């Protein structure tokens, strides 16, 4: 009932990463807490009463990825630079509960390197894993570019790894192929490099385009396909 059509994923991934719906319920008499929340960007959207106690409801959308890169700039030693998509209140509004679930970034101010840990609750090795590896590497490279860090390690955890029966032919064929040399991921020169400019420009989270990413030296075998299984 929440999705706009068969191809709409609902309130998943990007919605939760960039606009996590955050609510606060505060007793009306707690003026200091209300003022603090308003100062943090919340806005009051409702007022009600329960068991004789009046309260207000406040809301704001939280940009988790922006908070992460702000923290990399301002507090790179933090062990809390992470974002995730497991919003229990909205799981029923998603086509599928999030698979690539939690991302944690690890900047090293001494070496100016940054690593990424990704935890995936459930991973389809035939179709999901190649996409998630590519997406994670691109994200790590972009965040490193915007914050002045060189990508180092991408650590990939899978809670439940599986192969669907209707993917076996494709994967057996893939196992017979000799890998080509690895290509190099390149980000367009139009995307600013903090390491060169010294200017922090987080607005590029909105300005980046798929065409800003390319692969140098990419060779590939003939394309293979398999049906998506959910």
UniProtKB/TrEMBL annotation:
Any one cellular-component term (Gene Ontology): cytosol
EC code(s) of this entry: 2.1.1.45
SUPFAM superfamilies per record: Thymidylate synthase/dCMP hydroxymethylase
GO biological process: dTMP biosynthetic process; methylation
Record-annotated Thymidylate synthase/dCMP hydroxymethylase domain positions: 4-230
UniProt KW keywords: Methyltransferase, Transferase
InterPro entries assigned to the protein according to its UniProt record, in alphabetical order: Thymidate_synth/dCMP_Mease, Thymidate_synth/dCMP_Mease_dom, Thymidate_synth/dCMP_Mease_sf, Thymidylate_synthase
Enzyme class: transferase
Name the record gives this protein: Thymidylate synthase
